[in-house]
Amino acid sequence: MSVAIAITPNHEVAGHFGKAAGFVVYDEQGQLIAELVNHGRKEVGCKHKKQLQAQLAAHNVKTLLLGNVGQRSLARLLRTGFAVFRVPNRAPVQDVLDGKVAREPLLSAEQGRPCKREKGGCGCGCGSKKAVKPAKIGMTASGTINVNGLTKLGGFKL
């Protein structure tokens, strides 16, 4: 059983799960096992967050310490069995390991930060039903254009 801490480039607790520069993974004795880099931290959507979750699970992480997390990500983490705790942003990693900072257990998705994006919650649309886009006037799905019956288009004669 391992513990992971979301970190900034300065090795302080990151302010958000998906935007963390990386994660440091420690065993029960406090020995560093791995340092994971979050390559998708500037991406919009859920794909990189799901990849992070898989990497953490591969290192047998059961406890996750972070500054903040969105509601959808928190729900996914809790559903898969992670124990998630909120600790103060920018706290030094060593203080977190030594128990010098307060840990707030996050037990339900509502404790996560509400999503600021409008499209389906996370921006990628994963949580919303895809609406059928209306066809543009004069365009067809097959790529052929039917201009029969049109005599004027924007001041141009056909």
From TrEMBL:
Q: Superkingdom of this entry's organism? A: Bacteria
- Indicate what this protein is called per its UniProt record: Dinitrogenase iron-molybdenum cofactor biosynthesis domain-containing protein
**Pfam families registered for this protein in UniProt:** Nitro_FeMo-Co
Q: Which residues form the Dinitrogenase iron-molybdenum cofactor biosynthesis domain?
A: 10-98
InterPro entries, per this entry? Di-Nase_FeMo-co_biosynth, DiNase_FeMo-co_biosyn_sf
Q: Which UniProt keywords apply?
A: Nitrogen fixation
- Signal peptide start and end residues: none
